[in-house]
Design brief:
The protein is α+β, with helices and mostly antiparallel strands. 18% of the residues lie in helices and 32% in strands.
């Protein structure tokens, strides 16, 4: 049996003014949102039908920003407290763990503003990854990091080197933000392709932002799972033995 896990990331650019039902028609299992521009009380009151809020971070001092992870109601999860690692604009991050079929997944959603302290971003992200990493945990790291992955750069090389410490690489090779004077891939998804071999990632056009969403679909194969067989067990004790003797005697 093959099941498909869907994870959608979008820099939404002010969630409160958007018709969120248009994010994706097929209701992905997980929605990862960046730059939703809401404060804590505003976001906790915000409702997206069929989804629960799993984790989020809101700015307290500055306007805009923020990151969040929402998931289909049927999934169970555990929130990971990222508050100590967050610094407004430098690194805004939230995370949760969930199980889907045979997968143990850790999803991290992050945002880094342009022209911020890149060294601080790397140090804090490294601390997060080292605290969470285990060989059996499947990372999905997504967000708007404001590094154009279609061009080579020192920042891209440094981030790649850091993410390789947990075997994660970028899987986005298409434009995610197209403007009048620029076309870039500053939104990204990073996974361990050695563990998640069967996957697809595609751009989604929903006209909800000047950033296009990225949809990751992971296939899980149940063909290796042993077939469950029913076994009948008879309880044997002095009472059942006595009952058995009585019933046999009636047959004689």
């Amino acid at each position: 049996m093959v099941c498909l896990f869907q994870n959608l990331h979008q820099n939404i650019r002010e969630l409160g003014k958007k018709a969120v039902e248009h994010l994706h028609p097929d209701f992905p299992y997980v929605l990862c949102l960046t730059e939703y521009h809401l404060k804590y009380l505003q976001f906790e009151k915000f409702h997206i039908e069929n989804y629960n809020l799993g984790a989020h971070y809101c700015r307290q001092l500055r306007e805009k920003g923020g990151v969040a992870i929402l998931f289909i109601i049927a999934l169970s999860f555990s929130n990971i407290d990222m508050a100590q690692h967050c610094k407004e604009q430098d690194i805004e991050i939230c995370a949760l763990k969930l199980s889907f079929d045979t997968l143990n997944i850790c999803i991290l959603t992050l945002y880094k503003a342009p022209s911020r302290n890149f060294g601080s971003f790397l140090l804090k992200l490294n601390t997060v990854l080292q605290s969470l990493y285990t060989p059996k945990l499947h990372f999905i790291i997504c967000g708007d990091i404001n590094i154009n992955y279609l061009n080579e750069s020192e920042k891209k090389n440094q981030l790649d080197k850091l993410l390789l410490s947990c075997n994660c690489i970028s899987i986005i090779n298409f434009l995610t933000r197209v403007q009048t004077t620029s076309a870039t891939a500053i939104d990204n998804i990073f996974i361990d392709v050695s563990q998640l071999e069967s996957y697809t990632v595609t751009p989604v056009i929903n006209d909800m932002s000047d950033h296009d969403p990225q949809l990751l679909i992971i296939s899980t194969d149940y063909s290796h799972v042993p077939i469950h067989k029913l076994k009948t067990i008879r309880k044997i004790n002095k009472f059942t033995i006595s009952d058995f003797i009585d019933k046999v005697s009636c047959e004689l």
